Amino acid sequence: MRVGSVETHVIRDGEFWSDGGGVFGLVPRVLWEKFIQADSLNRVPMALNCLLIVSEGLRILVDTGYGDKLSPKRSEQLALNRGGGIVAGLAKHGLEPEDIDIVINTHLHSDHCGGNSKWCDGILKPTFPNATYWVQRMEWAAALFPNERTRATYLSENFSPVEEQLRLLDGDTRLTSEVRCVVTRGHTQAHQSVIIESQGQYAIYMGEVAPLTINLERLAWIAAFDVEPLESLETRRRVRDWVRDHQATLFFNHDARCSVGRLCYEDECYHVEPLVLD
Ligand SMILES: [Zn+2]
Question: For residue 214, which of 241, 254, 154 has the smallest C-alpha distance?
Fold first, then answer.
């Protein structure tokens, strides 16, 4: 899909199943199960939608999924099905890992940066040897110094191997004249999203600001994973206003049914119209 002169492709690192209580937070199951069906373990299907952006000759990859380093036990808990993963997904577009110039991590939870690194002959190495990895400085600090609630998802094997290729960001940062990172606080303190603007067209990879389409339709449906839920609410409101005003194309990182959509506003109600049905 093109956004002005920018080329974009959703690259899926597979699907997994996540506890419905985590995904929908305070929302009772009787409400959310009208929107999505849970399995017998109360889990709901989630996608790992990463995004390839080509702008001004730079090949940019946003998020890297779970990758292939999870233990068999953890993979089974998640019912993780990676298919070929992101490396195979990139190959479909004629790209090798060496061709990626920039990796942006929206944040460093394990389902967003697991593919940053891989095992090579018993040594952990960056999956993308020529890339600079762009991470917010405050997110890096949160990952290096986790607390009891966050330590299970901040796994150093995902981010320490890329330390020498790291670019730490202090807030909103431009990559090209068409692509920029913006801090969208809530899910984590320094979570970031990626905005594309080119030739009067707009798009946003929201990350966890709205992982599913329903999150833009119902602002108060906030995941239990978010460390600052009330910040999430205000960030989401701000992002949704921006999306409406700019008629921006939406990339959903975890929605297994709709990876790309458009926001419609009618009779004071918001609705996401899928552009790509998965
Ligand atoms: Zn996630």
Answer: 254
Q: What average pLDDT does the segment 207-231 reach?
A: 97
pLDDT at 278: 63
Residue 49 Cα to ligand 1 midpoint, Å, equals 10
CA–centroid distance, 143 to ligand 1, in Å, is 15
Q: What is the pLDDT, as a whole number, of residue 221?
A: 97
Please state whether 9 falls in left (phi above 0), alpha (psi between -120 and 50) or beta.
beta
Per-residue burial over 63-102, b if 16 or more Cβ lie within 10 Å, else e, is bbbbbbbbeeeebeebebebeebbbebbeeeebebeebeb
State the distance from the centre of ligand 1 to the C-alpha of 20, rounded, in angstroms. Answer: 13
Model pTM score: 0.96
pLDDT digits (tens, 9 = 90+) for 149-207: 999 999 999 999 999 999 999 999 999 999 999 999 999 999 999 999 999 999 999 99
Domain 2-277 homologous superfamily, CATH: Ribonuclease Z/Hydroxyacylglutathione hydrolase-like (3.60.15.10)
Say how many Å lie between the CA of residue 199 and the centre of ligand 1: 31
The token pair that represents 165 in the structure block: 């290729």
* Tokens encoding 73: 């036990």
What gap in Å lies between CA 194 and CA 131, rounded to an integer?
Answer: 17
Ligand 1 centre to CA of 111 (Å) is: 5
Q: How far is the CA of 211 from the centre of ligand 1 (A)?
A: 7
Cα 55 to ligand 1 centre (Å): 25
